[in-house]
Amino acid sequence: MLNNHHSFINEHSVTGHLHRAERQAAQTQQSPPRSPAERYNTNHKLVMHENITPHPQRLVQPQADSPHILIVGAGVIGLVTAWALLDKGYKVTVISKGWANVGQNHGDRLTSQIAGALWEFPPAVCGSHVDAVSLEYSKHWCMTAYWAWKHIADDAGLSREAGVRMTQSNFFFPQRLSEDNTKCRKLLHKMTEIAGSGVEGFRHAGAKLAEERGVNPKYEGGIMDGYELSVPVIDTDQAMHWLTNLVLAKGATMTTRTIETDLLLIEQELRTEFYADAIVNATGLHGGSLSGDDSCSPLRGALLRVVNDGTTFPKVDAALSISADVSEDNEIIFIVPRTDNILLIGGIAQDNQWDLDLTLDTPVIQRMRQRANEFLPGLKNAKLDPAYPLAQGLRPARSKNVRVERELRRVDESSEPSRIVHCYGHGGSGWSLSFGCAADVIDLLDEAIQGEEPAAMDYRI
């Protein structure tokens, strides 16, 4: 059941169990309405330099009886979770079929390295976040991550080491958000939540934002509205290398392994082998295969990489986006400065496409480039990065969106509650939600180790 082959299979499901009645009971006392800032910005359970530190020294040293956590998966979710656990005094082992690669073989990069890694308030521009419960959680998770990444970006030394900096993120719309229709009401509600969330640099600039950013004001019938905010943007190759080294420096053990089966069926075997008190499933796209969850699927994405040094077109120093839920054909504009001299151009969101066989000549990639050229006219002169012109990967999508939840099933009716915590299905938002999800994972691990019954996400909201 454990081997070194790159394959994952789904095993038969296991009989579920009822949640505790008191967890299901509705609250009779209703709390007064809270503002977005109160809901998403006041209870950061992971706060940089308070209970988590970006430096190699742990905040809390492990004791002989400290719990040992086994994390399966070494993408941004697995590594940030490991980091947070280590700083709380846990012992941590990370197992993964692969690790962040920053060499010349671009095909070996993890999904976390392919990501655009521009912080976003949900739903993300790829338009894959539709579950109401998950969306409510995500609005909290993203703010925890916002401040964590911002603290790193604001420290000049850490910013260089980790590849994290702040940039202005601009969103454009073909309608005025004040128009009275369903789509505009939804978009206006999101903008209002962003404005009240506590993010820095928010400005509702209207149609003039296109002119300010050199965007074609007549794109797809005309840019009619727009707003901007200051957000973290992450050089994923640099950041994944930094995260891996940080987690190692804090004392984690890392082992290359591939898991092929439902974790519940091999939970005791894994816990015995690794002397683990609990397990975290942070395997991204394969999270469903390891949890008997058939609602997971790939959402294929691709990004062109062009030289952004100001030589062939005016240097782009801010992110420019039109999200999938804005355009009539669900196509995305996603233009993001990755480093000082590389600009990302995207994007696409192709559901249930497993193959990574896109090329520069593939029609969908050519259309993606043409959209960007029409949107930001200077890009028609952009030169592709000769070393790495096209990045492509599979976002870990899930029909119910992000799952941060304990294992609800049991092997049989007489068994104790599982000590597995799942954290997968982040779609295109892994970097944006990372620290917030890690904080909830730690709470769920504490519950599991204490022997409490698990509760579904719906009952914890």
TrEMBL record:
Keywords: FAD, Flavoprotein, Oxidoreductase
One GO CC term, this protein: cytoplasm
Essential cofactor(s): FAD
Domain annotation FAD dependent oxidoreductase: ranges: 69-443
Compositionally biased tracts (Polar residues): 1-13
Keyword presence, Transport: no
Pfam families the UniProt entry points to: DAO (PF01266)
Region entry Disordered, spans: 1-39
GO annotation, biological process: D-amino acid catabolic process
Superkingdom as given in the UniProt entry: Eukaryota
A GO term for molecular function: D-amino-acid oxidase activity
Family named by the database record: Belongs to the DAMOX/DASOX family.
PANTHER family from the UniProt entry: D-AMINO ACID OXIDASE, FAD DEPENDENT OXIDOREDUCTASE DOMAIN-CONTAINING PROTEIN
Protein name: FAD dependent oxidoreductase
Species per Swiss-Prot/TrEMBL record: Roridomyces roridus
